[in-house]
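Handoff note, outgoing to incoming analyst
You'll be picking up this chain. Sequence as last confirmed:
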Amino acid sequence: SSTACGAVSRKALLFQGAATNPLRGRYIISKPIDVSRGGTLKFFLKPGHQASPGVCEQPDDVDRMRLLYKPEDVHQDANNPDWFGLKLWTDIDSWQARSLSKTQFTLINTGFSRTASMVPCPKNELCINRRARLMLKQDIHAQGPFDVWVIDELNALARGGISTDTSLFCATPAAAGPSSIPMQIAFNGQLFLPILPGVAASLREFKYYQHPDVLSVTPSGGPVEGGTLVTISGVGFNRFFDSETPPKCSFGPGRSAANVVSDTVITCRAPSTVFPDPVNIEIALNGIDFSISKTKVVYLYYVHPYIRSVVPAVGLFDGGSRVILGGSGFEVLNIVPRCQWRRVDNGEVVGTVVGQKVNDTSIICPTTPTLPMTALVPKSDFFLEVSLNENDFSNRQNATFVASIPPQISAIIGLSNVNNESPAPITLTGKTLHGSAKSNCAFKSESFQDFGWVMTDFLYRTSKEILCQPPSFPGQGRQQSASSLVTISLNNVEAASPGTKLSYFTPEALSSKLAKGLSGGISSLIFLVFVLIVYLRHKRRTTKFVSVPKPWTKPSVKLAKDKMVKSCPRKQTGELFPLWRTTAEEFGQFGIGIGLYYQFLRYMALVFMIIFMLHVPSIAVNIRGPRYEGRTDV
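Most recent structure output, in case you need it:
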């Protein structure tokens, strides 16, 4: 049922006060049982729990849980006791919170004997069918949700005796060892009579057996919702079997049917529970008496982990994406986790991979499986679930993964060579170019592979055209060109396909240009200064030759030419040498060296003229023939 302090499972009972009645919610009453020879009460008890809601106060060390009784025939109001009827109930036993574990259920096994004050028996008659009610009650009376106790698997058993005219029950005594002993009945406690011979031999004997030993359990834990198929390993599981009382598994206060596979293996389903706590695993071959193993084998109940983030949450149908799950409660068990993808539309499980546990808040799914693709549907949604015990997957359905078909890029429109310092946007064309908030353009330089994929802004236009902003790749040399792969990333983590190539170049740095210009300017300035200095020095040296006391007159060009004509070399007859008709022999009057020099010049001119004439055809062929620029096979 549901209470003010939280939900309680169908088996557990929650003690909780009510705001309108000081007794309501503080007790639980058993059915009337035969206490002619006393009785036994078995149950699991826990004082409060850390998972209890904050509005519920935890039990104090002085708090008690009391066991009381009241004869059935005294005031038939036992079904609904009230405050004023408490005086009719008598204490049998009690337990203080300080003596009980606050993290695990404690098995309470208490017995009591019938007394005259409890239930009187008639004189000179069989003391049978003397019934009483038992009540478990918190030792507090107040209004509101105070001390919270939890009880589970309550069993109130009569200690023995005749229940009806056709049935009786009794407790078995201890035996020296495994054996089969005939059963007999004595109505007066002295004369024991055998069971009638007509009854089958197997029903006339009681078989004692030795408890099996439980050694291990796989998996070592499961969710509080139960249902986990558990394999229990041990020794002695075939020592006893009765179809009327089949074997059972005990998970602390929980019970479930057991399937004996062999003498060393039993399988069973873990029952549901209220709290995520460790419980002891025990086996009852007769469904009643549970084994007490030499070494405790513990099974841990846990709450399914909560997945808060999936990175990346988008991938390809082809699989291969590395997914990181963020959440809480991943380190409950020391077992390798598993990741599972389940279709949102029909719940079909389409893939499971072994995960890698990082810490209590993160799990890595190394690679996504190949996910099924629906025809004409570019995207599909999947639930991403986690199992901590390799069997039970979380079903919160709060983590989703979107699978898409890969985009296909065919060409780049616009710039064929992008400036690496200030790249301009480019336009990509292709097919199935998806547009979403998590999509980006991805670039990878072929010269600098260590940078990996660089993600940039993405502008969706149509499914066949998108706009991308190329990044700047550091490390590229000045005045050098390189290429980069360009594609689309659907999840801002990995590239969706190889894509196409984009060329880019790095221009000369502005500082280098300024340095060159400054260097050239300084050189020019130095040269001009040098010329000015030379000019000024020359002017000072020539000043003394033109500085005369009398007034200066401008030189005459006619006088200069007359001087030149008078100083030119002449023939012996006094005539000037003609420009084209002067022979080498005539220069001999100036000396043998001058004559031989001009004669050598004449012969060399003739030789070069002949060589030129011989190469005219080759020059003409090269001018009009095919060009070899750019060819490497020449």
